[in-house]
Amino acid sequence: MNTERVLILAPHTDDGEFGCGGSIAKFIESGAMVYYATFSLCEESIPKGLPKDILEKEVVKASEVWGIGKSNLLIFRYPVRRFAEHRQDILEDLVELQRDLKPTTVFVPSFNDLHQDHHIVAQEGMRAFKKTTVLAYEMPWNNITFSTQLFIKLSSEHIDKKLAALREYRSQKEKPYANEEFIRSLARMRGVSIDASYAEAFEVVRWIIE
Predict the structure, then answer these.
(1) Distance (Å, rounded) from C-alpha 37 to C-alpha 162?
(2) Domains in the chain and their CATH numbers?
(3) How many CA atoms lie within 13 A of 86 on its CB side?
(4) pLDDT (tens digit, 9 = 90+) per residue, 72-131?
(5) 191, 152 contact by CB (below 8 A)
């Protein structure tokens, strides 16, 4: 029986899909318990003409693609680009997640991520989960630098699942990085680095071996 408990920390609804969506598919396939926590529904930056709650609906649908149950999808409602004002509240939410879920592995944005909200979640995530294995995921459009210290080998089916989850974010489809060619190419490039068909790369923030 797989006793892994994996927690994905996504500052905004689709960050976890972009950063480690293939790995999420692999963890679930292996029988791990996966939790997905997102900290903003970005209501202030929804494209014109779309309902304010569209990202909430989309993250639920994306989670269903993987088979993440509603009880394992954790939604917080901090205003986008204003996480710094709510830093202590975010930390307290993270500490509560650590206490309640006791994850064995936590995924966070890179500490070299330029987005202010991503940076806050990475920093406070490290504080809350300092006694847990913490891996930082890659978002090339935001990263100043990125150290490929750990790789997770993936199959084409894992990438297909990642793409299927991302397709549920119809409100975000115009983003330049939200296209299949880019996502497959990045996964292929990371796979070439380790003689695999596909992979996702991570920075090791903390690695604990039982």
Answers:
(1) 17
(2) 5-206 (3.40.50.10320)
(3) 18
(4) 999 999 999 999 999 999 999 999 999 999 999 999 999 999 999 999 999 999 999 999
(5) no
